[in-house]
Design goal:
Blueprint lengths: L18 H28 L5 E4 L5 H11 L4 E5 L4 E5 L5 E6 L2 E6 L4 H7 L19 H14 L12 E3 L10 H11 L4 E5 L4 E6 L5 E7 L5 E8 L13 H21 L4
Helix pairs in contact: 1-2, 1-6, 4-5
Length: 270
């Protein structure tokens, strides 16, 4: 579980604001957070994805920095179109920081629409050329298995009750020739979505030019590749928030509200 910034025992380590700016930032943040709490409560009660966005351009820069610090940082970072769009998870599941150029917004959703739009693009299957290069060993069979999985899997949406079909081969450990590896990566190509997940090990997930086909690379703290696999699914399940998270999200927002209100009463943060 990710701890919110304000829970650090060392006290407030956010923006250094004077009393007036601090009070203004706290008041604005409370107004937004109380609205957000209701959004998550409704999502939890109706078991539907939240649909809420707030343009941080409506706040002064000090207040926006205050709010973002209170919300903390999560484990998921997403980049679209070579960094033109950035999406970062906050410490509250289902709440994301969306950056498009200089415009920053908070988005409450299981997965922001910009991501959904990007992953809807691509071909339906892997195009395998008729003329194969010399030196191939396992690549044609692996690509055939992936195409079969793509044909048999509903990749139009994320089903939280269904485990995505994994193509279980590891390009590090499987007996692939260098030509096999190059051929597979060339055929699946590169998509517009790049995802990083931090935690026990670093995970990097890439969309391919084939809709519903993802490449997942897991790297340990010594920068050694532990796994390099392919997955057929709408989006890897570790990326979006789940409906089960919505109750906890509402609780975390409530805790943030109570912390700010309590510290305002005593006249100091942290």
């Amino acid at each position: 579980m990710i701890e919110l910034k304000f829970k650090r025992k060392t006290g407030w380590d956010g923006p250094d604001l004077d009393r007036g700016a601090e009070r203004r930032a706290a008041d604005l943040s409370l107004k937004i957070l109380k609205n957000l709490e209701q959004v998550f409560l409704q999502a939890y009660e109706t078991q539907t994805s939240p649909d809420w966005i707030y343009d941080l351009g409506g706040m002064d820069s000090q207040s926006a920095a205050f709010l973002l610090h209170c919300l903390g940082k999560g484990e998921v970072r997403i980049s679209l179109h070579n960094g033109e769009v950035k999406v970062c998870e906050t410490a509250i599941p289902g709440l994301w920081l969306l950056e498009i150029g200089q415009v920053k917004s908070l988005v409450a959703a299981l997965l922001p629409r910009s991501i959904e739009a990007a992953i809807s693009n691509g071909t339906d299957r892997i195009e395998i050329p008729e003329k194969l290069p010399a030196g191939l060993f396992a690549a044609p069979a692996i690509l055939g298995e992936i195409n079969e999985a793509l044909a048999q899997t509903d990749i139009s949406k994320t089903d939280p009750d269904t485990v995505p079909r994994q193509i279980r081969f590891d390009m590090v450990r499987q007996p692939l020739t260098p030509t096999d590896r190059t051929f597979i990566l060339t055929c699946i190509g590169e998509g517009s979505v790049s995802i990083e997940l931090s935690g026990f090990a670093e995970s990097r997930i890439f969309s391919t030019k084939v809709r519903g086909l993802w490449r997942s690379v897991i790297i340990n703290n010594n920068h050694k590749v532990l796994l390099d696999s392919l997955c057929v699914t709408h989006v890897p399940p570790e990326v979006p928030a789940s409906l089960d998270d919505m109750g906890r999200s509402a609780k975390l927002v409530r805790e943030t509200i109570e912390w700010i209100e309590r510290d305002l009463e005593r006249g100091a943060l942290g």
